[in-house]
Amino acid sequence: MSNDAPATMPDPSDVLALDSLLTPEELALRQRIRDFTDQRIRPNIGGWYDDAVFPLELAPELGELGVLGMHLEGYGCPGRSAVEYGLAAMELEAGDSGIRTFVSVQGSLAMTAIHKWGSEDQKQEWLPRMAAGEVIGCFALTEPTAGSDPSSMTTVARRDGFGDDAGWVLDGAKRWIGLASVAGVMVVWAKTDDGVRGFLVPAGTPGVTATPIARKLSMRASIQCDITFDGVRLGPEALLPGAFGLRGPFTCLNEARYGIAWGAMGAARDSYEAALAYSLERLQFGKPLAGYQLTQEKLVNMLLEIQKGTMLALHLGRQKDAGRLRPEQISLGKLNNVREAIKIAREARSILGGNGITLDYSPLRHAANLESVRTYEGTDEVHTLVLGRHITGLGAFQ
């Protein structure tokens, strides 16, 4: 019987050995994204957040990294698995929710809409450049008075002319639209005589005004905008031919919600790791904070939820790759993991004491960002009602 220590010591924070559930290829991809986060995001995020700046120079770098439209096939897209995309989302959000949100808006929303509902010409025109980060896209669904209820949107598109050559005139307003002021193409959802349809609006189209929303307390290293459409004339080629009704945008939203279930655990893990490291070094009453029972209870409670949430995200990813993932399962993952991640970030801040309110440490930044994450792509309340309808068979949205 050998007394030799194992060549690789297990990670004490991976009590369930979840890494053993990942393939070597998945682990290698995760490490590549983690290295990028360590090298490009962590050293700079405090300044970007403090200055309320989204680093546009990251777009082509993220394209080269292979995370834009990561789950899509063809047209220059990486064509990776759902689990691989989830791992990337987790590592990027460990850096900052704003960076993961860029990847989500670009790939899960704008690119997915074009890939799934666009014409061949639209796909060829936009997707390769978006996958490379050369063109940024946005997804304009939410309105000033239509957030959780997109069926009440007031943005309209009416026919301009007759026959196959008829174009469209777009009027209305959208709010909280990520990346709109820097987007080369907008995916805009509007009501028509045929129901809700999607349109591609290139940058510089007359009548479109995108105004960044300022004075944010969350997602400061990100861009969200108000958009107005005032008599915007579009050709017939602007229409996404495959999208009819709210199924079009909801399909894209489910892609984004899936990534959030992973990403939130990245923010939670980074908060936990910051608190753990601090507690091992910070002395109080002659010994490290980590040596006190109250601190250990906080750390253990955080770790419990991170392990459970990561296992949940991985299960959703395996289901998605097998073609079995259902909308109510996505709602469960988004609701649980974001809710728990906020609790973890706040608890981690408490271990940091007064130092935790500075941008020298990540937990309070994560907590502030996660307040936005719990609101977009379906609030806690909306996902609660989705699950309530699933288990009772009774809709309670109204």
Describe this structure in words.
The chain is α+β, with helices and mostly antiparallel strands. The protein folds into 3 domains: 18-131, Butyryl-Coa Dehydrogenase, subunit A, domain 1 (Orthogonal Bundle); 137-244, Butyryl-CoA Dehydrogenase, subunit A, domain 2; 248-392, Butyryl-CoA Dehydrogenase, subunit A, domain 3, CATH 1.20.140.10. 49% of the residues lie in helices and 14% in strands. The protein contains 11 helices and 9 strands. The strands form 3 sheets. The chain has a 4-stranded antiparallel beta sheet with strand order 2-3-7-6, with helices on one face. Strands 1-4-5 form a 3-stranded mixed beta sheet. A two-stranded antiparallel sheet has the order 8-9. Strand 2 (156-160) and strand 3 (167-178) form a beta hairpin. It starts with 23 loop residues before the first helix and ends in a 6-residue tail after the last helix. The relative contact order is 0.12. The mean pLDDT is 95.
